[in-house]
């Protein structure tokens, strides 16, 4: 069961630090694997070139172009310093063990974590969760995992999930000045790459990018979701009851364009600040509109992004989540080991949804994350001996040790941004 073969991290330990020395072009010793390095160098170069080409279109706004990444200015072509992610991990009754597992699978000391158990879970679960976090020496030392004490209701089908995201993002903005992207994970999601992989690739991308699936195509199916008027009890009752549907329906709005999407997205800090602290009224107007529509979480953020001129060019129409929709049940189909290869080849960062402790999660731990049961995914910051407690000895958190996952993700991102085709799929009016 322990049998920690963990091929990815040890392999990458050899390759990636050398990549940065190669980029430095001052490495005196030519290495036998130079070919591999050149390939990696070229693909990273292509990534940065693509970005410099795609994002330098003149912006109508004055001020520095947010898309000019420092890597284009610096004459020291070293790896840029890693970004930081702010995670909301939320679940309900009985979910605290899987929230802890997901936390360990996505943990990195540079990130910030907020754990939320909705009111269907007894308060004892929340206490237990907080206690587990406090008793873990790593979380305790890094002080970057927080548990929400007074929970918010979140009705999957109503608008309270938007309220929960905004509340959590507001807390995370107050907790730290340093994070760059907001990621909200449900307890039934799981990562497919290590945080070292993810932070490494994100460090090459403009920090204003938002990864959001969206479409303005409103067919009868979408209209059926947008026209009803609902009242989400999560917004005003302290206990769960069914959602109310009004007998009347309303027309689609004409003052702005509605975009539909999916509930998972990776949102930039500047966009979250715009939604929460900004002076522009658009986020609040749309919040009021979507408060009375079903499934507003999948529509709110895409609609704000695409209707805000300062953000409509920052959207990538791909949320980096692997999920399979079950159209019969109008929900996600649970993933299992049959889906493992497809998940890897998708180049996605996360996958959803999984049944509690499905064996495929052990497979992901073993093959993709190099994680042994009950421990944290080891990264470049873990200096201990391989085994259970390798992350009890810390090094510099900014030293990443990306593995094969970063190559998969890089390939996916390069494909996504190649030829500027992402522009033709960005906030398009259909
Ligand atoms: C973004 O908004 C500006 C101003 O409203 C508009 O001219 C432009 O076409 C929009 N771009 C996209 C991709 O929607
Ligand atoms: C998001 O968009 C991508 C590209 O269009 C698609 O492959 C993927 O299935 C979508 N994901 C969801 C959850 O809709
Ligand atoms: C995985 O799920 C699919 C679809 O539900 C099913 O056909 C397949 O047999 C499952 N595989 C395993 C290993 O459980
Ligand atoms: C990890 O911990 C378990 C139980 O605490 C122990 O049985 C096992 O030998 C440890 N493995 C290593 C590699 O230290
Ligand atoms: C991008 O360009 C390359 C080479 O010019 C071409 O092979 C590839 O098919 C293009 N990709 C897309 C999505 O158009």
Give a verbal description of the structure.
The chain is built from 14 helices and 14 strands. The strands form 4 sheets. A 7-stranded mixed β-sheet has the order 3-2-1-4-9-6-10, with helices on both faces. The protein is globular, with a radius of gyration of 22 Å. It is 37% helix and 14% strand. The termini are far apart. It is of the alpha/beta class and 430 residues long. The protein has helices at residues 7-24, 34-54, 96-105, 123-134, 137-142, 160-175, 195-202, 220-226, 269-276, 282-290, 297-307, 340-346, 359-369, 404-417, and strands at 85-91, 112-117, 145-147, 181-186, 189-191, 210-215, 228-231, 244-249, 260-268, 315-316, 321-322, 325-326, 331-332, 350-352. It has one domain (85-425). The model is unreliable at 1-42 and 49-77 (pLDDT under 50). One 2-acetamido-2-deoxy-beta-D-glucopyranose binds at residues 336-338.
Tell me, rounded to a whole number, the average pLDDT.
81
Unreliable spans: 1-42, 49-77
**Tally of individual domains:** 1
How much of the polypeptide forms β-strand, as a percent range? 5-15%
Number of DSSP strands?
A: 14
Helix content: 25-40%
Content-based structural category: alpha/beta
User: What value does the Rg take, in angstroms?
Assistant: 22 Å
Hetero groups in this structure are:
2-acetamido-2-deoxy-beta-D-glucopyranose
Largest beta-sheet details: 7 strands, mixed
Number of helices: 14
Termini separation: 52 Å
Order of helices and strands: HHEHEHHEHEEHEHEEEHHHEEEEHEHH
What is the general shape?
A: globular
Instruction: Give the neighbour order of strands across the main sheet.
Output: 3-2-1-4-9-6-10
């Amino acid at each position: 069961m322990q049998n920690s073969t963990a091929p990815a991290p040890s392999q990458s330990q050899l390759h990636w630090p050398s990549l940065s020395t190669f980029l430095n072009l001052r490495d005196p010793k030519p290495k036998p694997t130079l070919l591999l390095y050149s390939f990696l160098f070229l693909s990273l170069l292509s990534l940065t070139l693509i970005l410099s080409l795609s994002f330098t279109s003149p912006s109508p706004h004055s001020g520095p172009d947010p898309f000019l990444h420092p890597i284009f200015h610096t004459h020291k072509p070293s790896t840029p310093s890693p970004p930081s992610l702010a995670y909301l991990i939320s679940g309900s009754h009985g979910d605290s063990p899987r929230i802890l597992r997901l936390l360990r699978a996505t943990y990195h000391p540079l990130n910030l974590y907020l754990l939320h158990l909705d009111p269907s879970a007894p308060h004892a679960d929340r206490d237990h969760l907080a206690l587990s976090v406090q008793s873990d020496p790593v979380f305790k030392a890094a002080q970057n995992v927080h548990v929400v004490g007074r929970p918010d209701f979140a009705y999957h089908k109503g608008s309270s999930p938007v309220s929960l995201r905004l509340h959590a993002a507001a807390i995370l903005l107050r907790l730290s000045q340093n994070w760059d992207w907001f990621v909200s994970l449900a307890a039934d999601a799981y990562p497919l790459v290590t945080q070292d992989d993810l932070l490494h690739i994100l460090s090459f991308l403009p920090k204003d990018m938002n990864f959001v699936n969206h479409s303005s195509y409103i067919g009868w199916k979408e209209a059926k979701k947008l026209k009803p008027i609902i009242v989400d009890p999560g917004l005003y009752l302290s206990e769960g009851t069914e959602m109310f549907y009004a007998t009347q329906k309303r027309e689609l709005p004409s003052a702005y364009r509605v975009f539909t999407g999916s509930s998972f997205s990776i949102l930039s800090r500047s966009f979250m600040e715009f939604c929460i602290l900004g002076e522009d009224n658009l986020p609040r107007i749309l919040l009021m509109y979507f408060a009375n529509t079903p499934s507003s979480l999948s529509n709110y953020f895409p609609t704000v992004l695409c209707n805000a001129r300062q953000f409509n060019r920052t959207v990538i129409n791909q949320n980096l989540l692997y999920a399979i929709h079950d159209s019969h049940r109008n929900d996600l189909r649970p993933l299992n080991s049959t889906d493992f290869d497809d998940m890897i080849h998708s180049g996605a960062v996360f996958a959803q949804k999984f049944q509690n402790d499905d064996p495929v999660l052990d497979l992901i731990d073993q093959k993709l994350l190099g994680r042994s049961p009950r421990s944290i995914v080891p990264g470049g910051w873990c200096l201990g001996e391989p085994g259970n407690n390798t992350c009890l000895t810390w090094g510099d958190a900014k030293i990443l040790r990306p593995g094969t996952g970063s190559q998969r993700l890089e390939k996916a991102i390069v494909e996504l941004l190649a030829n500027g085709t992402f522009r033709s799929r960005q906030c398009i009016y259909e």
